[in-house]
Design brief:
Strand order of the largest sheet: 2-1-17-16-14-3-12-13-15
Largest sheet: 9 strands, mixed
Structural class: alpha/beta
Mean pLDDT: 96
Low-confidence stretches: none
Helix content: 10-25%
Radius of gyration: 21 Å
Amino acid sequence: MLTKDYYFELPDELIAQYPSSERGNDRLMLLDRFSGEYKDCMVSDFPSLLTPESVIVVNNSKVRKARTYAVSESGGTVEFLFLSENADSSWNCMVSKAKRQRVGKRYSFLLEDGRAYVNAVILADNPDGTKRVGFDRPIKNEFFTLLGHVPLPPYIKREDEFSDEKRYQTIYAKKEGSVASPTAGLHFTSELLEKIKERGIEIYEVTLHVGAGTFLPVRTENIEDHHMHTEHFEISDDVFDALNKAKADGKQIVSIGTTSLRTLESSADESGFLCQKEGNTDIFIHPGYKFKFVDSLFTNFHTPESTLLMLVSALAGKENIFRAYEHAIEKRYHFFSYGDAMFIRS
């Protein structure tokens, strides 16, 4: 399968630069996973589109204000995206103009008054193109509070604003560690969750910390040659047992977002039940993949030639997805992180 087969033309004006004026006030396309039939709805309709024999799974990872700026020895401004901390208190970071940021180069992260809050040095080049960065004192939450910016994705062509601190975070976010939001969950309000519960549908939380690799394009000609980034996931004992029981009882497993789906499919074994409560996953789901645990998916509209577009094509069939996307473009749906949603239902 070729990467170029997953390209489609998307007008720039359909790429959402801001969220809707009110959380949850978004359009929703219902897509039948097997027949390919679709219907225009609203996110507020979602509870009524669920069968009572369903369970919902959400990702409770919280976005860290991981985008920061430092001044180099030569006086230039350099962007650092903090990805993960190492045992020695160094961090793995994506660094702008990476080829210029050589091992041994030093930087200062400055407060508004010009004083250095912390100093840094490039310790090593990581195999994945990121940098291992050392600091003259440990990086704590205060650092991100004082100097961090909301790490909006690159297709949002503006600087982050104060409102993004809430709107680029799900209302059920708890465990900090993501550098990108599990954006399907951005549509959910307390009222919507209550309506789901009123139908007797259980909602369970898992955790997958979203890495910056979620935005990386597929650069290989054949999609089978692409290697996914690694992300860490966790499933609590209670949720693990409850989801396996739900599966055994024949309930429909509805994943809210591709990150929840990747967590569940990474944990499931060939018998169709969860078998791993914690781990790292680099699962790449594309057409030909046989789903083991998830039945239905609530998700946003994804970028051309992306791994997420390939994932939804694996779930609903490439022809069905592209036909639905063509309709979405015709009807002026908004795409990507702050855009509208799709419910791929079994």
